[in-house]
Amino acid sequence: MEKVVTLVRNFIKWFNWKRVVLLLVGIVILSVGTTNLYGYVTERKILNGVVSKDLSDKGMPVGMTMFTPEDTVYFTAKGNQFWIKKAEIVWYKGEIDRKNRIHVEKNVALNKEGYFTAKLPAPEGLEEGHYGVTIYVEGSDFMQTRAEFDVIK
User: Fold this and answer.
1) Contact, 72 vs 54, CB < 8 A?
2) For residues 120-143, average pLDDT
């Protein structure tokens, strides 16, 4: 039994616990960092798309209600990644489908408040019906967010 105790004591003296603890701490930090980086890169780049009748001075939506044919419709979405500066906004009449596109606005710039904004062009007014709008990071086919609304008389 004495030999076993001596063997264990010698092993403990030889084994450097500080190195093991530092190695484990390093592995934990690396794992947490990798997980956070993955989440940052893969999460949506543009969030919270809403439609409104007007925009504030800071580009925030004002007056989110039902729309009439005479109303101007704005779309606003919050940028979520600092490197995303341009977006593409697509308007639809009917369900959101490529064949129902009525207007595509490219190179929509992020404003200083961190929002992408666009206005649905309708010089003769809007027809009654269901509409939708989507936003994409410029050059990407992955839809970031969308909003739908109805125009009623």
Assistant:
1) yes
2) 89
Tell me how many degrees the CA angle 87-91-95 measures, rounded to the nearest 5. Answer: 125
Q: Which residues of 54-76 are buried (b: 16+ CB within 10 A; e: fewer)?
A: ebeeebebeeeeebeeebebbbb
Question: Six-digit token pair at 94?
Answer: 């009917």
Same domain for 17 and 82, yes or no, is no
55 and 130 assigned to the same domain: yes
Q: Do 59 and 76 touch, CB atoms closer than 8 A?
A: yes
The residues near 119 (Cβ < 8 Å, ≥ 6 apart) are: 72, 73, 74, 75
Do residue 96 and residue 111 come from a single domain?
A: yes
Q: Which domain range does residue 125 map to?
A: 44-151
Average the pLDDT over each of 1-5, 68-72, 91-95 and give the range with the smallest value.
1-5
